[in-house]
Amino acid sequence: MSISAAVIRRLAVFLATLLIASLIIFTLVQALPGNVAQATLGMGATPEAVAELSRRWGLDQPFINRYWDWLFALIQGDLGHSYATGLGVGQQLAPRLGVTAWLLVWSLPIACAVALPLGMMAAMWRRRRRGFVVNAITQVGFAVPVFFAGSILVIVFALKLGWLPANGYVSITSSPAAWASHLLLPVATIAIVQACFFARYVRSSFIDVMVEDYYRTARAIGWTRWRGLIRHGLRNAATSLLTVVGLQVANLLVGAILVEKVFVLPGLGSLLMSAVAAHDLAVVQVIVMLLVAVVLLINLLVDIAYLLVDPRLAGRAGGGL
Amino acid sequence: MVSAKRLIGATAVLLTWTLSLTACSVGGHDSDSDLVVGVTLEPPTLDLTMSDAAGIPQVLLYNVYETLVRMGDDGEIEPLLATSYELLDDGLTYQFDLDPEARFTSGTVVDAAAVKASIDLMSQGTSKLVTAAMEQIESVSVVDADTVAIRLKQPSNFWLYSMTSTPGVIFDPAINDLANTPMGSGPYTVESWTKGDRITLMRNDSYWAAQPQFKQVSFRYIPDPNAMVSAMLSGGIDVMAEMTSPDALGQFDDANRFTISSGTTNGEIVMGFNHDRPALQDLRVRQAIAYAIDRQALVDATWGGQGQVIGSMSVPTDPYYQDLTGIYPYDPAKARTLLASAGVADLQLALRIPITPYGGPAANDIATHLAEVGITVTVEELDFSSRWLPEVYTDGDYDMTIVAHVEARDIVNFANPDYYWHYRNPEFADLIDQADHGSSGDFVPTMEQAARLLADDAAAEFLFVFPNLVVCRSGIIGIPRNATSLSFDVSRISAA
Lengths: 321, 496
What we know:
The structure holds 2 protein chains of 2 kinds.
Chain A: H1 3-31, H2 36-41, H3 47-56, H4 63-75, H5 89-124, H6 129-143, H7 146-160, H8 176-210, H9 213-220, H10 225-263, H11 268-277, H12 281-309
Chain B: H1 2-23, E1 34-39, H2 55-60, E2 69-71, E3 77-79, E4 82-87, E5 93-98, H3 112-123, H4 128-134, E6 137-144, E7 147-152, H5 159-162, E8 188-194, E9 198-203, E10 216-221, H6 225-233, E11 239-240, E12 258-273, H7 278-281, H8 283-292, H9 295-302, H10 332-342, E13 347-354, H11 359-372, E14 375-382, H12 384-394, E15 400-405, H13 426-437, H14 440-456, E16 460-473, E17 476-477, E18 494-495
Parallel strand pairs in B: 1-10, 1-11, 13-14
Antiparallel strand pairs in B: 2-3, 4-5, 5-7, 6-7, 8-9, 9-10, 11-16, 12-15, 12-16, 17-18
Helix pairs in contact in B: 8-10, 9-11, 13-14
């Protein structure tokens, strides 16, 4: 099978998965207890008012009709309207997306950049005390919950030292310096936890290299361990890091939602939280759909990247890596 | 080895550099002209005719929009756009004399025609608060440019009071986008709204009355209590308008940095009974529950001792407030006797509450106290919109629940048998009716009688008044001690 056929095959699987996901999401979200009309009208709502609002919003239509209308609009790029605010979901989503994107765009590369040397040190010194220390740090760092790590950073850098703001957000256009200072702690929170996680994969992939013949040969001809690891191990580690990053996207997004809560950032996570609280299903289902689509898309890209790196994979059936 | 050291060194340098670069911009606002207020609930929309969400009047009322008459700090009705008002001899018509100086931010005169147009606009609203006030209006007539007469369908002593709040807002006749672009006559205008973050108000430099000090005021929405405390401690906000974690008050002890003010609100925290339940229809059982609960101990244990105990559905700033806390003093022995005489043994009650910061601790405290007199209470915490509203509020599937009733003068809800308590007491309903429709001179004594009746009847367990706990940066003054309206009025705040 050619590479292009394999790519098309994976693309088809991607689209089919997305379609199934949309049905599952819509079903689950609609099955949530409660009623958005009731939630919007709040205490003091009469049953007639709730019924009227439900009718106006089409909530009394059969399930399959509502699903079909939603899906059809979604395919055409119409994300629908929020019940609670009356605003377009896309209009609400766009500014939030930017904040979450900044978080990920900064924390992911920083996490990788920290994880590589950290993992390398842990591998290199794995039989020494300092290697053990590095290993222990990554173990602890990964075990710490995101909100706890974030709270510690707030206490140290915002409350004790007073160097950085405790929470909040300023857009890059209104003040780049304030924007950076408000993002630093949340980005550091995600980066620290993720770096510790990645470092463990990097360590084992470097250790894999250290038992290979070519590494022993490199050492035999007089290369230092660092040189051997960098020349032979880095590519190996990078591939395994890529896999883990792909698999971690879902966790990263969840981490970003928690971090947004700790640092009161107006991102996707806080929109999801407030939409759930207001029972604003039109917003909830689009955000969940978006998160699923992002995760699937990243995995698709990783799959395709593998195909390009290792064409032997194109011959395998299925293609579910 | 060199490369590893170099890497660590470079990282350290980079980190220090970034920190030093950003350190100078902490706080991020000019404290002489800007004020940042931390609040918890972001409004879903700015259209106050559509939604009763408390976040809307909190930011807009008296700041952006003004009313004919306003609520004073002591719970008295004060003039605002109207310099004076009188109830005409027919007992139905309120005549307001508008301040001839009053202008909308756009420069348009606030005249009788604008008042009439505002009432027309309000009448199309869906907010329960607004429709309740509008439904009582028979007609609005323009007497002359500065005089407007509003005639009611029947005499009402509650109506004028309700007009101090959202229903009484006077809109600029040019308004066309209530949800996004409020246009009023207040000292501030809405400059911007970053959803999920803040609403920024800008001073209206052509304001018709006294100019406020701060040029720019931001309401920052911080739902998480810990984040709110951190923001206040680190200088990210100047005022913490709502303290939802009284346990953290100790962190603001430093009087050189912070000022704490504690007053009352219109919020009664009430443990309501489902009067459809046979056991709770017995007065002796309700009295037993009242005797079994030590309310002061409950406030101390659950809300840091902040919050005044009350004995009925009334707060200290109500004109008809009286201290009724002595009717059922803490007396577990009496509670046991009453339960025995009611013939209920092994009473089991479901206390199903919405999740709130005060509800859980209060419910557990109550469960412990009731267990001491032989009542088994099962506490269940429910998500407000997805479970509490449909199950408890609508379907009445509960024995007891704990809710803060934050609207002013919401004692009238007890006169409505369809309200979720299902409280049916014709005598009480008659008193409310008399108080509302009778002469204004009889209003206070009749309301006092109604509040006492409610307390005697142990119609609910009235726990305490939600405190108005405000922490601000020291030097900031002008924040009223008591919150008598739904507005957080920033126009009178100044920095010494």
